[in-house]
Automatic annotation (TrEMBL), chains A, B:
Keywords, comma-separated and alphabetical: Fatty acid metabolism, Ligase, Lipid metabolism
A Pfam match: AMP-binding
This protein's name: Long-chain fatty acid--CoA ligase
Keyword Lipid metabolism set for record: yes
């Protein structure tokens, strides 16, 4: 239905550059602290970041980067990457954040698929590019994100030095205004099956996402927030932190490549970080580090945790040991990525502890702008009763409606994004992912939720991490196998672990076996590689003579 | 400049109805408390408000209201008016909020200009409509916002009862999706000079405005906020409170027609209001009421104050007597209306008291999305130095670019909205209105800022209210005349008042005379009618023999 009568309002477009423009005006001295690849801790602020982004924009012009050109970054979370976020999108080009943890062939594939004109690369990722550069015909040059002093030897052609490139450029730039639907950035999913698929974000989507992100429904960022994104700027835009922090005037602490406990803690302690962003395993890493050192007192008030389900054991540990609120969020590359959360509202904090912890293992509720439904196998929306499960589908202004240069619309049924997640939604709107479609265990024709089992195992006092995967079974097709990493120096046997599950799950959900391992394989974004585990243990039960 | 490459994001439109949809899902039991025209206090919540809005939407369909039709409301702040806000815009029609304090001829003019199809009217405003109804050819019927029991006698044709109209309608409604640029509501300026001019808001503008409003840069609304808009829903949408409160999940307290101290305090005390919205005179009214009763303890944490300059005397009184933060805002009907503010950030609260109070008399800084410049008489942008003054002009996605059905673009120079306010902006972006163009006093060719004088006079211990206007002078063309309302039962003479100004303003700014009055004439929105004062006192100095 369409009316003819429009409001008489200016058609000011929502552009990404305006976020930094706002920060440099309102919070010029708010800090941006980075652990640089050169090894030091670097301090700057939004005013300087703006100035350097202007310089970078001039440099991009000089390189001949035009609107519609893709420019790649292969970089950790640092102030220079932040400058790329604003300058590249600001001039109207598209920042393609390349995940350097992909296999070399995948990196080659996506750079060619995106037709990147330049690659801005951090110290440490040059070897990967050297390996594939001969197969990158669209790339005109490589810019190392460092100064002259730290420029490495490299066989890459047309190698430039970032600091030299921008050094003599003017400090102001006349940023173009264009339509908000214009592409701003591009990120490829890791492509665990098939080739990686690109998600191309518009300026409108990123600005609306940033506004949602700072709101109390999602990350609740403010000028007094000190934000540490332990999620990378090369994957799903570090959950939008580079856009949201300037809008909120939050202090931004960028961990560079320091994803280990000691590096993380150094920043948290020194910079007084009060809000962290990361996948569950990052907070497990931090916990393991702090526990070993008997540290319980931290400046952290909240950790915002997504990318994988929140295990109740971690929720409780963070609450009771550290007095840190574990704030679950759900999202994916295709959703810019934030879509749901469970912020610590007075109502939530007033709940009995155990009830609250349970809620904190859900993914929370949809932010304003995001619509969620669960669809069964016949494409029929099921009830929001906390029981009926099916594929989670989402809609909204920052949600992908097609992969980049890709005609396969099978992930986009009827105007929705099909997430590939199996989920339930309860009557109050709380959503819980019970499994990924591809991780679902089908035993004798019935589903078993690996996440639910993992959640309960995570509560076992000797368990540090675990994963449940479906492996071949002669009678039931698939049966669950439980893989467990114990706490360092602690012990437990199969019986101890399985009896812990008794009475908490349906009996037939009980894993057929427990395998103790020293670590779980992870993706570049810190998620357990279940497909790898499945492959490795596929015949485990058969070989054991199940 | 335009690129060709759009992001691959869903084109979900930003529609007003989604705000209430969000609230009924996330905060179904959050309260909406209204002082009804029937005299009682009425309690409802967002779930019920949603249900009744659905019913109202069906009723509008039954009345034949289509997209592009204008529907008028003449109503105070109550839950029924809230339902109109959502249902009328929700079906795609345009809610025209008529200011019932306009003169009858003006009401007639704007209803005809808008071509309103129906008028929803509160008890108390029927007489006005009866007077003009014969001249309202487009109006097909009048709906009284009450139940059968309270239906008044009236000569209005086609008189309907609101509660009857919606009573038997279904509880759900299939809200149409349409373009976000579509008109949602319409509000006419009071038209102190010439005919009133309509500002027609789009859905996009109202949703973006709501998101800005809840953010920490403007009103900082949250689920724990209890919001009392003492600004009317018939003028500038009660500063957007009806849209922002549901988005934030805030409790909404609607004062009906009770704009006096006792009614206000009853709601503040009983409902535990922590944030109030209103013009300075409203907070003066509250202060006078509380002072008389020696009340200093209130649940209020902040009063957000705009529509007129914030007098420093009030800022200080609210801080020191009540421990309430006086949060200045600036906006106008043409800006939806909120554009700037000074929220109590840690940085602001850490300032020395006197410096903070001074800042609180500015209008604060522009919210994200709003651009401000000061232009001199030659249309040249002047420096942001806190000294250079000129016309304030603004741009942004919720700012008017043309009056409704009006070809006169003189208020919209070069894509800006010319506000008619004379202002300065300092290097940190703090904006201060020094006068209205039409209120400026021109003495011997030089400007005198009436607001600056009023600000200082407001500090005099015996002064309750004051206004400075320019009146005729034989030698200097115009000279300032100061009108003063003293505190009840207190005394002061001209000499006492003028000597209080000494050393605080340039000597030639000193008013030529002080006239003590028992009250100042106010507009329906609580602003001092300076034009009326000017007319009344035009020859005051000449008659006194200046
Ligand atoms: N709160 C959560 N609970 C459970 N799972 C979650 C949660 N948040 C995110 N996820 C999982 O992470 C997925 C999105 O992750 P992301 O887009 O980062 O890449 P990926 O899907 O892990 O890998 P790929 O690149 O192969 O698509 C979701 O589809 C979901 O399966
Ligand atoms: N913080 C403030 N300081 C000084 N003046 C302010 C402030 N906020 C608003 N105003 C004044 O209020 C005006 C906007 O008010 P509004 O749109 O409600 O109607 P109006 O301009 O008073 O009347 P009309 O309907 O005739 O235009 C601004 O143009 C400005 O003059
Ligand atoms: Mg995925
Ligand atoms: Mg005006």
């Amino acid at each position: 239905m369409q009316g003819n009568l429009n409001g008489n309002m200016m058609n000011t477009q929502l552009l990404v550059i305006d976020l930094l423009d706002y920060a440099r005006q309102q919070f010029p001295e708010q800090e941006v602290v980075s652990r640089r690849l050169e090894g030091d801790i670097h301090r700057t602020n939004y005013a300087e970041c703006w100035r350097r982004s202007c310089q970078l924009a001039h440099a991009l012009d000089a390189l001949g980067v035009g609107m519609d050109d893709c420019v790649a970054s292969m970089a950790w979370n640092t102030h220079r990457h932040l400058e790329l976020y604003y300058a590249v999108s600001g001039v109207g080009a598209i920042l393609h954040t390349v995940n350097p943890r992909l296999f070399a062939e995948q990196v080659e594939y996506i750079i060619n698929h995106a037709e990147d004109k330049y690659v801005f690369v951090d110290l440490g990722f040059l070897a990967l590019l050297e390996q594939i550069q001969a197969q990158l015909p669209t790339v005109k040059g490589y810019i190392v994100l460092t100064d002259r002093e730290h420029m490495p030897e490299s066989s890459l052609p047309n190698l430039l030095c970032y600091e030299e490139l921008i050094a003599n450029q003017p400090h102001t730039y006349d940023w173009p205004r264009f339509n908000e639907d214009h592409a701003a950035s591009l990120c490829y999913t890791s492509g665990t099956t098939g080739n990686p698929k690109g998600v191309c974000y518009s300026h409108r989507a990123l600005v609306l996402h940033a506004q949602a992100t700072v709101s109390s429904a999602l990350l609740d960022l403010r000028a007094e927030t000190v934000l540490l994104p332990m999620v990378t700027m090369y994957h799903a835009s570090a959950w939008g932190a580079p856009y949201a922090a300037p809008l909120a005037g939050a202090k931004l602490v960028l961990p560079g490549s320091g994803m280990d406990g000691a590096s993380m803690w150094e920043l948290i302690e020194n910079e007084k970080v009060n809000v962290g962003l990361g996948v569950p395993t990052i907070w497990l890493t931090l916990h393991n580090y702090l526990q070993e050192r008997k540290i319980t007192d931290t400046p952290l008030e909240r950790v915002c945790v997504g990318g994988a389900a929140s295990p109740i054991g971690m929720v409780r540990t963070y609450a009771e040991r550290y007095n840190i609120y574990w704030q679950p969020i759900w999202g994916m590359t295709e959703t810019a990525p934030l879509a749901t959360s469970l912020p610590p509202t007075p109502a939530i904090m007033a709940l009995p502890k155990e009830q609250r912890y349970q809620l904190q293992t859900t993914a929370g509720r949809a932010a304003f702008g995001v619509e969620m439904e669960i669809f069964d196998a016949d494409d029929v929306a099921v009830a929001h009763d906390g029981e009926s499960s099916g594929e989670l589908r989402v809609r909204g202004p920052w949600i992908c409606n097609q992969y980049y240069k890709n005609d396969d619309l099978s992930s986009f049924p009827n105007g929705w994004l099909g997430t590939g997640d199996i989920a339930v939604i309860d009557q109050h709107g709380y959503m819980r992912v019970v499994d990924r479609k591809k991780d679902v265990i089908k035993s004798g024709g019935e589903w078993i939720s690996s996440l639910e089992i993992e959640n309960i195992v995570s509560l076992h006092p000797q368990v540090n991490e675990c994963a449940v995967v479906g492996v071949k079974h002669p009678k039931w097709d698939e049966r669950p196998l439980l893989l467990v990493v114990l706490n360092q120096g602690e012990e437990a046997d199969e019986h101890a672990i399985l009896s812990h599950l008794q009475g908490k799950i349906a009996k037939w959900w009980t894993p057929d076996a427990v395998e103790f391992v020293s670590e779980l394989p992870k993706t570049g974004t810190g998620k357990v590689r279940k497909n790898e585990l499945r492959d490795a243990y596929l015949n485990y039960l058969i070989e054991r003579g199940a």
